[in-house]
Write a structure and sequence with these properties.
The protein is α/β, with parallel strands linked by helices and 252 residues long. It has helices at 16-29, 47-54, 80-85, 96-102, 106-118, 131-135, 139-150, 156-159, 180-197, 200-205, 219-223, 240-249, and strands spanning 4-9, 36-41, 59-63, 90-93, 122-127, 163-166, 207-211, 230-233. The chain contains twelve helices and eight strands. It has an eight-stranded parallel β-barrel, surrounded by five helices. The structure holds phosphoenolpyruvate.
C-alpha cells in the first residue's frame, strides 16, 4: 500500500520569520496525523528556521531545488550535502517553473536526482504537459519523453526511492484543476510506463502526486483515484488552515 504524501511548495514566498509562523501553526493543526507523509518546502533562506521547528514532528522538510555538484566554483548554487546538514529529507526537482524560467531540462533533472539519491534525499520529480501540448494530443508523448530522460540509467532500487509529481502546467496557479478523471488517466499511463522502463514491482511502489490548483475542496475527489497517491500544493500551502485541511482530507 502506497502511503499518501502531501507536499507544500512555498516557491518564492516567506521570509524565515514568516515561515516560522506558518509552520508553527501547521504543526499544531496536523499534530495527530500519522497516515499521511507531510512535507513543507520553504525557500532555501528559511530552511534552517523551519528545520528547528519540525524536528521530531510528523512534518518533513523539503527543498525546492538542488545542484548536482557537492561543492566548488558554482556561484549561487546549493548542494545536497548542504541540504542534508540542515535536516532536509525531500527535494523538488524539475518543477515546471524551473523548466520554463531557468532552463531546466530532463538531462539536468537526471543529474540533480542522482546527486539527491547519492546523499539520501528523496527527489520529488515534476513532470507534465503544457496547454498547447495537451490541445495537440501530445500529453502522453511529453510524459514518456520526460520520464525516459529524467530517469535514464536508474536502477529499480533507485527508482523506488523517487516520488513523482504529475503537474499539468496549465493547472499550476491557474485555478484550473485537472478533473479527477483527467488526472487519473495520466497517472495510470505513468504507472504503466514505469512498468515498461522498470519492473512491475517498481511501478506499483512509486508514489505519484498530482499538482495543479489543489484545494481543500478538490483534494478528496483526486485522492480517491486509484493511481493518485498525494498532492504537490502551491498556493494553498501558504496558509496553515488550507494546507492542513488538504492533509486531513487526503487521509484515505
Ligand atoms: C506547484 O507549485 O507545484 C503547484 C501545483 O501550484 P498551485 O497549487 O498553486 O497550482
Amino acid at each position: 500500500m502506497r502511503k499518501i504524501i502531501i507536499a507544500g511548495n512555498w516557491k518564492l514566498n516567506k521570509t524565515p520569520r514568516e515561515a516560522a509562523v506558518l509552520v508553527e501553526e501547521l504543526k499544531r493543526e496536523v499534530l495527530d496525523i500519522e497516515s499521511v507523509d507531510i512535507v513543507v518546502c520553504p525557500p532555501f533562506t528559511a530552511l534552517d528556521e523551519v528545520s528547528d521547528i519540525v524536528l521530531d514532528t510528523n512534518i518533513f522538510l523539503g527543498a525546492q531545488n538542488v545542484y548536482w555538484q557537492d561543492n566548488g566554483a558554482f556561484t549561487g548554487e546549493v548542494s545536497a550535502p548542504m541540504l542534508k546538514d540542515l535536516g532536509v529529507k525531500y527535494v523538488i526537482i524539475g518543477h515546471s517553473e524551473r523548466r520554463q524560467y531557468f532552463g531546466e531540462t530532463d538531462e539536468t533533472v537526471n543529474k540533480r536526482l542522482r546527486a539527491a539519491l547519492t546523499h539520501g534525499l528523496t527527489p520529488l520529480v515534476c513532470i507534465g504537459e503544457n496547454l498547447a501540448e495537451r490541445e495537440a494530443n501530445k500529453t502522453f508523448d511529453v510524459i514518456r519523453q520526460q520520464c525516459q530522460g529524467s530517469f535514464a540509467n536508474l536502477t529499480d532500487q533507485e527508482m523506488q526511492k523517487i516520488v513523482l509529481a504529475y503537474e499539468p502546467v496549465w493547472a499550476i496557479g491557474t485555478g484550473k484543476t485537472a478533473t479527477p478523471a483527467q488526472a487519473q488517466e495520466v497517472h495510470a499511463f505513468i504507472r504503466q510506463l514505469l512498468g515498461k522502463l522498470f519492473n512491475s514491482q517498481t511501478a506499483q511502489w512509486v508514489r505519484i502526486q498530482y499538482g495543479g490548483s489543489v484545494t481543500p475542496e478538490n483534494i478528496a475527489a483526486l485522492i480517491a483515484q486509484p493511481d493518485i497517491d498525494g498532492a504537490l500544493v502551491g498556493g494553498a500551502s501558504l496558509k496553515a488552515p488550507s494546507f492542513a485541511a488538504i492533509v486531513k482530507a487526503a487521509k484515505k
